[in-house]
Amino acid sequence: MFLDESGFLLVPTRRRTWGIEGVTPVIRFNFRRERISALAALTVSAERHHMGLYTRFQRDNFNAADFVNVVRVLLSHMRGEVILLWDSLTGHRSAARRLQRRFPRLHIEYFPAYSPELNPVEWVWKDFNDHMANSILLDKEHIRQRLHANKARVSRTQDKLRSFVLSSDIPSPPW
Length: 175
Prior knowledge:
This protein is α+β, with helices and mostly antiparallel strands. The chain contains five helices and five strands, in the order βββαβαβααα.
């Protein structure tokens, strides 16, 4: 299981876009700095090579208790030993101590410092940002709706989820 969190602002990511020849496109947006915190877990089944994407969106930043709750819920849907790979933020380390006491079947490994290219969930965030680029987002609820729509879109096929793992710099899996 790969886990990571991110934030999505009302101010959209700007990307190159199409427009009428000779007319510069104008992209309007809100100047409010409101945001939604997002957490995603990308799971890979060792036996069936089935992949899953689990997300949680909230208005406030995630803390250690939030990480514990998310992982607890995910573990209730998974059988056997589980390896969790994530970065070594302070909130992750304190959550890890609690998780390992409560769930002996959970093994936690950390990515090296400053190496987001190893975490496949970073590619999930890139995909979400690409699909929300140049959008006019009205409020936090609108961001949340777009994030849920993106999650549904990428979860439709195993190939899309697999592409996130294959795009990362971790060693290629045998499938």
